[in-house]
Amino acid sequence: MFANFKRYGEEFKTFAMRGNVIDMAVGIIIGAAFGKIVDSLVNDVIMPPLGWLMGRVDFSKLFLVLPVNGKWEHYDSLAAAQQAGAVTINYGVFINTIISFLLVAFAVFLLIKGINKLKADKKAEEDAAPTTKECPHCFSKIDIRAKKCPNCTSDI
User: How far apart are CA 78 and CA 60, in angstroms?
Assistant: First the structure.
């Protein structure tokens, strides 16, 4: 029984130490931290001026209380409604979440665009590198890797 645990442990160690698994874990951790930064950007930097421009509205406090037994209740704040056990639709929080998503999607777009540009630049650099050279004896074009000219058979 314990021999199986040891074998599974070795298999798991082999799996976990693969480069792509470690890269994925690092990506998830950085992604979670990036998500927190974007949430803070939306909630603390973007939404306050936007709410101020729209008449001093705090989007995170926008809500709609659903009626109970056909009767509409009024609550002064989202916290009061939730404390009373009212069923609320928190559309202001939803608006904040949509803006956070759009910012993250835009940041990922810019990241991918930058990576693609680097790949294109590298490919263009590789394509620009010479692939032929001239034989110093017969002056014919030969492959840059050639050590002997295929035309005059001279050593290069």
Answer: 9
